[in-house]
Structure formats: C-alpha cells, structure tokens
Specification:
single chain, alpha+beta, 60s Ribosomal Protein L30, Chain: A, four-stranded mixed sheet, two-stranded antiparallel sheet, 3 helices, about 25% helix, globular
C-alpha cells in the first residue's frame, strides 16, 4: 500500500510544525474519503465516561474506524478538523491528548485545525473530529 501514502509538505519558510503537517499531498489514483464529525460515542451511541482526553481519544478512534471500514489505516488521514467546546480544557489536557494521539495515530501527523464552538449537537460531547482521508483506488 506504499503507493497510497500521503506526502507531508512542510516548507522551511513556515518553520517546523509541531504535531501536525502544513500540507499533505495525496497520491495519484487515491480515493478521497470524507469522514463526518465523530464524537466520543461508543457502539451504543453513548458518550464514553471520562474527561476531555478520554472523549478526544474515542472520537479519534471513531474516525480511524471509518477509515478502516473504507480499506485504509490511520496513516491515510490527510486532514483533521477538531471542534472543541472549550479550548482551555483542550490545552489543559494536552499531555493526555498527546499520549492518546500517539497510541492511535503513532507518528502520523496530518493537517489539523482546532476550532472552538459554542456547543456540539450532542450536549455531553466536548470534542468532535471531522476528517479527510485518501485510500487506495481498489480498497473497497
């Protein structure tokens, strides 16, 4: 599946990014997968118990589950948009978020944006992650 690897684009003039890439170049022939915003739901659509980092990890796992269903893996994610209801809570949990991220994504750092929102549709949700991935043409 090496032909479907995304290539990080990080111009020196922008400085070294930490925990994300400035751009991701999709390989020719890859299929674009649009992933709806995922929250910290379990298989019964209940918010998992725990704090912000626990919700972040479950939402990210749910994103990767969609990618795997389409025939890809975490490293096929090209972009993450992370919506949070309190950016201070995000910053306060960065150490735990980083550990969860590395467990799920290893050292793959797609493009990312963090957006603080007033609320999410699910009242108990603190984080929602929307994503784009590129999987092999014949993955499904």
């Amino acid at each position: 599946m090496s032909s479907s690897r995304l290539l990080p684009i990080n111009p020196e003039s922008l400085g070294a990014p930490r925990g994300y890439s400035n751009g991701m170049l999709a390989p020719a022939g890859g299929r674009l997968l649009f992933i709806a915003g995922q929250i910290a739901w379990d298989s019964q659509q209940n918010i998992v118990p725990g704090g912000f980092a626990v919700q972040f990890a479950q939402a990210l796992r749910n994103v990767v589950t969609v990618v795997r269903e389409a025939g890809g893996e975490a490293e096929h994610l090209g972009s993450l948009t992370i919506f949070v209801t309190d950016h201070h809570e995000y910053v306060d949990a960065l150490k735990e978020i980083g550990a969860a991220y590395r467990e799920i994504m290893s050292k793959h750092f797609p493009t990312m944006a963090l957006v603080e929102v007033k609320a999410l549709l699910e009242p108990l949700a603190k984080v929602e992650i929307q994503a784009l991935a590129v999987v092999e043409r014949d993955a499904r």
